[in-house]
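Quality-control log, excerpt.
Job 1 of 2 completed; input and output follow.
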Amino acid sequence: MRLQSKLTLFSAVSKIVVVLLLVALLPPLINRVAMVNTDHRLNEKKDSVLDIISNQGIENFVAEGSEGAYGSYNLLKEEFISIEQIPEPIALDTIENSLRKVENEIVEYRVLSLTFEVDGSYYLLEIGRSIDTIQESIATMQYYALYFLAAVILITVFIDLAFNKILLQPLIVIVKRLKRIGHPSTFTPKPINTTTSDFLYLNNTINDMMGQIQDAFLKEKEFIGNVSHELLTPISILQTRMENLLTDPEMPEHLLVKLVDNQKTLHRLKSIIQALLLISRIENEQYLKNEEVSITVLANEVAEEIADRAEAKEIKLHLNLEDDWTLPQANYSLLFTMLFNVVSNAIKYNKPNGTITISGAPKGKGYELCVTDTGVGITQENLPHIFNRFKRLQGPDNESHGLGLPIVQTVAHFHKIKLTVDSTIGVGTTFCFRFGNK
């Protein structure tokens, strides 16, 4: 998962946890706020009533000395106020829930109760608000609070997404540049536009590291050139000298046999060096891919080139190619070597009177070319190692040096060809090359 996705996911999960906690704590919190607000409102009404009594007298509510009472309910019985004269003084100043009977209906109220004295007479003031009305207010508050929380979460998520995208943009640029590197020589060091010190350090470190890798590849190319000259030249000189000695009529026969053996050894050594140089040059991208190669034409030319060798070993070579497919930006000579080596191995390790089939057909948006033989096969434990250099698993032919298949793999990788191998002991082996999109 990408870093930006992880940051966004973490932010979203953390906000969901916060929302769940708020949802759990919201009802008691809002209930408490509603009750405090209701008590504050009852106290305000109490102060208003006492101000009226102080300014206008108690007679506006209760006739003095009458031991009467005053009561008032609003239309929906949501609130009430009552004043009644009491015979004895009682110290009372409370706010609590209380049940009241109103028109044969029991209603629960939040009631403020207060006793006070006016001109030597004592009165009880009660102001109440319906609990149902308070609960309705609580439900409304919870409803809007939840919507508000949801809106805040959505806004903060979008803000986080935008911020993360801006914050991580330098890292995204660095990753894209790394993905575009096909070979160290194609990398160009570039500064990055950011004020984040971590990203600046990362970009500078990558630039320095790629610079060191480019220097190492350049030295390797120089080394390859030196090896070509320093090794192949003396080998060629030795071969020439031995050929001259072989033509000497006075050379004893037993020495001629040794010279022939030495010449074969030099030939094998020269072949090994040339194969290693070929692999190294391919890996260093010293070959151009500036040709369009027809896969069917390639397969036919390889079959024509190797037909005599197959016929000499009494092996039948079949071609079964459907349609045609062209590989753009390719190197024909390398592809020819790749396919030639596979077919050559199929001949080398085949059974007497065996067969080799080169088949090809479009697959998806690409083309699949397979070489199937009826040879001795490769064991399952050896299959993962067949492309290892110098690891010779089977070698009945003295000219086999274990580098044919490493060359095949190197050329396939150079052209971004998917290479698969399937083999069964005693049945045969199939090499498949997938050209184009996988």
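Job 2 of 2 completed; input and output follow.
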Amino acid sequence: MSNKYEFIAPCHFGLEAVCKREIADLGYEIVKVEDGKVTFSGDMDALVRANIFLRTTQRILLKVAEFKALTFEELFQNVKKVPWEEYFPSDARFWVTKATSVKSKLFSPSDIQSIVKKAMVERMKEHYHINWFEEDGADYPVRVIIYKDIVTIGLDTSGESLHKRGYRRMVSKAPIEETLAAALIKLTPWNKSRILVDPFCGSGTFPIEAAMMGANIAPGMHREFQAQNWDNIVSPKLFARGFEEAESLVDTSVEMDIQGYDIDPQIVKAARENAKRAGVDGLIHFQQRPVHHLSHPKKYGFVITNPPYGERLEEKEDLPALYRDMGKAFAGLDGWSEYVITAYEDAERYIGKKAAKNRKIYNGMMKTYFYMFPGPKPPRRKKMVQPEE
């Protein structure tokens, strides 16, 4: 196998640019950016580091094939051409964990799954001269994406979705995914030297993700990945090195002002627990507090929040008052920037100001809007520049 591979990083629709920048910052070459996914190239190190360090992708797929298929016969023959024996040992447990098809002739996910599996087995039979595979070895989950008749096949190197960082046991009722929260923070100009308040912090996802960025804690440093079981493809040494690198970059001595409020004391307690598991409990101040008590004496802070948007009808009636309270609280903050993700169509009306920008973002299947109300930039401080370590 060559030492240059292609990898696919699926991400939230509308946030491809954030994911692309993150991959480029890790030092890998971007091959292409499409709706909901970024393809990049690198060596096996890229597989390891992308899983450990990327905050905004759902998973990392090792791309094994791409071809056009208009019929199931073409799909079968093309899959059979892939040198699966280079990826799967003879005892591998391999299956198509997910097939998606958009604007394509072949559209039945279950048919696509069974035909791809059948073709993989045929190829393996010919190579290993075995008629029956016990499949009692490591798992090799395969994902198939068909878009405008182009079939892309990837091995899922992550296993459990990367938004599962391992810190969130307790969730509030409409939690925002960790990967989405991280991407939204990265869409704003916030950095660790600026104040950040989330007045509807729920299980603490925005404050925790921000604190992890500020303290340079890699999102995947405390979890396991599917590819750790693939000694035939990835050397365990690479994972050991990746985790070591992540460990060496952590800096929890960083000074930050990050606060999370929620009206529900149980939820605040859960958020504290989550922050503790993420290793950032010392960097965030959580408090039970309703939104109309939101205030801060300092200037130029940020609010980044995911307020309730009335998934249930009886909650819908409370929304105008809630968003009005939010607007009043925003008006009392001096020179702040506010960023609000919500599915509530009348958000701007009741907040009482027009967003400078709003981005349409799909949170799962739900269409939400990310309203941006950027404030003024703080004046540049003149200070002695410390030389970088």
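Post-run check on job 2. Residues 348 and 354 are 6 Å apart (CA to CA).
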